[in-house]
Amino acid sequence: MKYFGFEPSAAEPAEIYLFRWPAGYKEFMRKHYPQFFSGPACVFREDGKLVIAIRASRRKTQQNLRHELTHVVLASNLSRVPPWVDEGLAQYFEPGPEPGTVDAKWLREVRKNFQLDTMPSVYELIVKRPAQEFDRRWYRASWSLVHFIVDRDGVDVLVRYARMIGAGEQEGVAFARCFNESPPSMDAAWRKYAFSLEPGPP
Ligand SMILES: [Zn+2]
């Protein structure tokens, strides 16, 4: 199966650890990846193999797997993945079963943030990356913006953008060359899209 036009990479050993209860997960993470401090799932490398750890119910486990595996595919094909593209695409695949399925709750959150004027702008997402850990609002904004771009322009443009950033191009320049518009002009189109989107499978 091809993802984003990438060929599957050579088989790489991977271990997946599933936890039903928080205590076991916390203990595992403390031992294996102590720099990670929150979130129900994590992917990292240890002794030359890939480790995916997930703490969730059965339904959520599949969602988290889709999310973490998207990070794996992106990281193994691109030298640098801008955080909003990385988390945006991971969430694009997360709800499933179809890519791009719109989670009704996420959509409500996005619309509320637009209405309250608390939504990060495209400029904030691409240029002024928050220094600390990303909050929920930032995650949903990345999801919603990526959903809009994939729907309007296709996923390839995001890959092209990430490649330019990986080659050392400045964010604003790469953005203008890939999307042919300024961040503020995309803000308006993105907002309109968020209010026209229907929850459910695409
Ligand atoms: Zn993620």
Would you give an account of this structure?
By secondary structure, the chain is mainly alpha-helical. The chain has helices at residues 22-32, 58-77, 83-93, 104-115, 122-126, 136-153, 156-166, 171-179, 183-196; strands at 14-19, 41-46, 49-55. The protein contains 9 helices and 3 strands; from the N terminus they run βαββαααααααα. A 3-stranded mixed beta sheet has the order 1-3-2. A hairpin with a 2-residue loop joins strand 2 (41-46) and strand 3 (49-55). The mean pLDDT is 89. Zinc ion is lined by residues 67, 71, 87, 90.
Short summary:
The protein has nine helices and three strands; from the N terminus they run E-H-E-E-H-H-H-H-H-H-H-H. The chain has 202 residues and is mainly α.
Keyphrases for this structure?
single chain, 202 residues, mainly alpha, Neutral Protease, domain 2, 2 domains, 9 helices, binds zinc ion
Secondary-structure topology with pairs:
Elements: E1 14-19, H1 22-32, E2 41-46, E3 49-55, H2 58-77, H3 83-93, H4 104-115, H5 122-126, H6 136-153, H7 156-166, H8 171-179, H9 183-196
Parallel strand pairs: 1-3
Antiparallel strand pairs: 2-3
The structure holds zinc ion.
Residues 67, 71, 87, 90 line the site of zinc ion.
Q: Quick one: overall form? A: globular
Main beta-sheet strand count, sense and barrel state: 3 strands, mixed
Q: Could you give the count of β-strands?
A: 3
Rg = 17 Å
- Portion in beta strands: 5-15%
> N- to C-terminal separation?
20 Å
Proportion in helices: 40-55%
Low-confidence stretches: none
> What's the quaternary structure here?
single chain
Structural class: mainly alpha
Overall residue-averaged pLDDT value: 89
Task: Count up the domains.
Answer: 2
Name of the top-level CATH class of the largest domain: Mainly Alpha
Question: What is the tally of helical segments?
Answer: 9
CATH topology annotation of the largest domain: Neutral Protease, domain 2
Order of helices and strands: EHEEHHHHHHHH
So, CATH architecture of the largest domain?
A: Orthogonal Bundle
Strand order, biggest sheet? 1-3-2
Q: What ligands are attached or bound here?
A: zinc ion
